[in-house]
Amino acid sequence: GAHAPLLAIRDLQAWYGESHVLHGVAFDVSEGEVVTLLGRNGAGKTTTLKAIMGIMTKRSGSVMFDGRETIELPARRIARLGIGFCPEERGIFSSLSVEENLMLPPQVRPGGLSVEQIFELFPNLRERLSSQGTKLSGGEQQMLAIARILRTGARLLLLDEPTEGLAPVIVQQIGRTIMRLKQEGFTIVLVEQNFRFAASVADRHYVVEQGRVIDTIPNEEIERNINKLHAYLGV
Ligand code: ATP
């Protein structure tokens, strides 16, 4: 039978102070899927992730996670339900070691990955355990940022431009990591500017424009929609 989606968003609106930025975002994500939010700068992609996570405190509409309405919950309660947000700037503390960075957020849910499980997914981090945050490459910092939310027990990962500023070979590594996480059953919402990368990892793409989702493109239809996509993204 049909399963309810793990994440179901309807009429999501959000404001920065008086500035109304999200005007009714709606989309679904099933368990184990990878979806992307594509769109131009300022379209509202990052704000959508922040609204799901409860970091945007002024918001309305409906965000159902695992059958539960979260729109009224504070961010720490949303985290405890199993949602983790990885911001674009990654949030790695340069004065702390890899291990300290990893241990920084509390394990908010049973089922958070152990350090051993994390090393299995991110073998590079094992060798870097006592390195300082600043000594890591951009790619290693991104891996650490993802590893850190896995430790908290998140099963829905909200990743904001994980490939930003990374060399192509590292972008491929991040892609393999995302596919591995998908195999392990994690659900991922990814904000991306790089739609080539998006097409290599995602099941479906949602196009965000002016604070709304204006189109849905299944990944297998991306080539057929390439001109439309170029127009949406202004590339
Ligand atoms: P980008 O790739 O540039 O981050 P985006 O699609 O993620 O694009 P958002 O960052 O969600 O876009 O921004 C949506 C709108 O909200 C933009 O008009 C932006 O200027 C505005 N905005 C973003 N952050 C703030 C803030 N802290 N205060 C006020 N307005 C903001």
UniProtKB/TrEMBL annotation:
ABC transporter domain: residues covered: 7-235
GO molecular function list: ATP binding; ATP hydrolysis activity; branched-chain amino acid transmembrane transporter activity
Keywords carried by this UniProt record: Amino-acid transport, ATP-binding, Nucleotide-binding, Transport
InterPro entries: AAA+_ATPase, ABC_transporter-like_ATP-bd, ABC_transporter-like_CS, BCAA_Transport_ATP-bd_LivF, P-loop_NTPase
SUPFAM superfamilies per record: P-loop containing nucleoside triphosphate hydrolases
GO biological process, one term: L-amino acid transport
Family the UniProt entry places it in: Belongs to the ABC transporter superfamily.
Record protein name field: ABC transporter ATP-binding protein
Origin species: Pseudaminobacter soli
